[in-house]
Amino acid sequence: QVQLVESGGGLVQAGGSLRLSCAASGTIFSIHNMGWYRHVPGKQRDLVATATRGGDTVYAGTVKGRFTISRDNAKNTVYLQMNSLKPEDTAVYYCNVETQYNTYWGQGTQVTVSS
After folding, report:
1. I want to staple 49 with a disulfide (CB 3.0 to 4.6 A). Which of 60, 69, 97, 104 is the partner?
2. Contact 92, 30 (CB under 8 A)
3. Which residues share a beta bridge with 3?
4. In the structure, what pLDDT confidence band is assigned to residue 67 with cuts at 50, 70 and 90?
5. Predicted pLDDT at 101
6. Smallest Cα–Cα separation from 12: which of 111, 81, 95, 94?
7. Above 90 in pLDDT, residue 38?
8. How far apart are CA 105 and CA 97, in angstroms?
9. Dist. CA 115–CA 108, nearest whole Å
10. What is the mean pLDDT of the chain?
């Protein structure tokens, strides 16, 4: 069994910062990609950022330059540092972990940015 536990969401003023964390535990011995997606009611779940085990990263154009994804492979943990937050960043953020055969999702954490 695999569990992804997210933390770090909350309410922040526009221009502020938050850091999300996601720790994977269970029967995962080798994680390939780790990343973050976000969902707003009425819209699809969109990629925010992903990182390979070696550190290669991909960002959505809407967050590039403001968000930074990083990971601690020894702890099976991925982080998302979010700076210069905008109201349009408000969403439920979901951690995503990919192994060779499976994809796992976190429970989601709410990020709300007020104007």
Report:
1. 69
2. no
3. 25
4. very high
5. 87
6. 111
7. yes
8. 7
9. 23
10. 95
